[in-house]
Amino acid sequence: MELQPSPFRKEFTRNDAAICLNHAGISPIPQRTARVITHLADLMTRQQLFRYSQLENTLEQARIPCSRLLGCHPHEVAFTRNTSEALSMVALGLDWQAGDEIVTTDQEFPSNLVVWLDLARRKGIKVHQVASQPDHRVAEDALLAHCNQRTRILTVSSVQFGTGATVDLEKIGSALKNTRTLFVVDAVQSLGARPLDVHAMGIDALAAGGHKWMLAPEGCGLFYLSEKGLASVEPRIMGWHSVSNAGDYANPCITPRSGIRRFEAGTHNVIGAAALAESITMLLEAGLPEVWNRIRHLTGMLIHNLQKRGCQILSPLDSDQGCPSGILVFSHPQIDPTTLHRHLLSHRIEQVPRAGGLRFAPHFYQDETDVLQVMWAMDRPVGKHDALRA
User: Fold this and answer.
1) Which residues pair with 80 in a beta bridge?
2) For 103, left (φ over 0), alpha (ψ -120 to 50), or beta?
3) Could you tell me the strand order of the sheet in which 101-105 lies?
4) Is the torsion defined by CA of 370, 373, 377, 378 positive or negative?
5) Which terminus, N or C, of the chain has the lesser number of Cβ atoms within 10 Å?
6) Which residues of 228-246 are buried (b: 16+ CB within 10 A; e: fewer)?
7) ∠ CA 323-164-332, rounded to 5°
8) What are 108-136's pLDDT values in tens digits?
9) Residue 268's CB: how many other CB atoms inside 10 A?
């Protein structure tokens, strides 16, 4: 079935005619999001007409589409700078005891590993990196089997950055529901691509920067804690905004305010939050199931065309031989990944080498013309400069 052009494609018209297959890295932002940034910056140049209350209102309105993306309520959403910051808040906020344990996979991006290894160094925590299956699949049963009474956190990426492997979040969340173990999810490689529901999936803590599949600028992300998470994680960075009487400057207190906003210590990146919310609003207008269906269709077209050229698909596929995430990693039968990476860049196709292959990550606004252009470029002779530059 042919994939019809998306009405949202016009938001990503670029003068350099480049094709972005790196939405798992840094994505372009929609034109409408750029206009929001410009509008707020313009307001800030006119201080005599500008009021702090406008910033506060903009921030509160931004929580609404973000909460819809997460499947929670607006008051359950906090804004952070990035994934690492939110995960660090969880790591710093627990009352760790020597001998406590953390369970994770052997495929995690450093954001979801360094913070826990640092705890192991400082606090005597044990970190179990559970081996994935030979085809890169994450074995949920193996992760759960490593949990015991000392396990404080089980943490995974919803989609693995290097291979595109996915995790059955609901299975893990359900298994941990009535335990002391917090289920912590790095969702940066799925939010904005695959539908996700923190309540239904039993997620206790979620962290995600907005610059990948959410199509927002770098520097603003989302942080969620369940009631179980809020009861366990204390704020370790305090400020005027994180206390119960925020705004009463004459009577400062140290009692944290209720809910997730106790982790928002000071002034906010309002422009970043508004930009993130605008990009998410566009995804919601497109429809999250439709966004995912289009991504899956595009990765399916790529798989078909790559296999016709003798390429090996390195990402684990689902029962329908489709890609379970927006990430597709493959190897070429004759061209090494670095050389092919340089070759495609010379044809203005953005992608990156990962996991011993090349990683493609298309998004919903693209269509068959992009896939055909990529295949045309792959079929061009690799120039000497590509191999030399590699």
Assistant:
1) 221
2) beta
3) 77-80, 221-225, 205-209, 182-186, 151-157, 101-105, 126-130
4) positive
5) N
6) bbbebbebeeeeebbbeeb
7) 80
8) 999 999 999 999 999 999 999 999 999 99
9) 19
Residue 182 to residue 225: CA distance in whole angstroms: 10
Dihedral-angle region of residue 332 (phi above 0 means left; psi in -120 to 50 means alpha; beta otherwise): beta
Other residues' Cβ atoms within 10 Å of the Cβ of residue 123: 14
* CA 64 to chain CA centroid, nearest Å: 18
In the structure encoding, which two tokens stand for residue 198, read together? 């923190």
Q: What is the reported pTM? A: 0.94
Residue 79 φ/ψ region, left for φ over 0, alpha for ψ in the -120 to 50 degree band, beta for the rest: beta
Structure tokens at 68: 């819809």
Please give the average per-residue pLDDT across 358-370, as a whole number. 97
Closest CA to 296 of 12, 1, 13: 1
Coil/strand/helix, residue 107: coil
pLDDT (mean) for 210-226: 98
User: pLDDT tens across 143-172, in order?
Assistant: 999 999 999 999 999 999 999 999 999 999
Two tokens, residue 170 = 């609901």
Q: Give the three-class secondary structure for 192.
A: coil
In DSSP notation, 88-102 reads: HHHHHHS---TT-EE
